[in-house]
Amino acid sequence: MITKSETEVLTDRQRAVLKFVARCWSEGEVPTIRMIGEKFGYTGNAARTHLLALRKKGFIAEDRRAGARLTEKTKELL
Hints:
The chain is mainly alpha-helical and 78 residues long.
């Protein structure tokens, strides 16, 4: 189970990106760096940086073929 302190480690922007990734997956879409960048007005590098931070914190897993996907930790949170 995820504790409140674990979710507090996310910045507001990271939380917004995570929710966007979750929404994409719930709609059957695979979120890409380009999609994230366009949604939030980020450069590709900035979008990638947010995904990397979310991956390091255990909220997403990335696969070059499948894009960003949610981890069990994130599914519990949402």
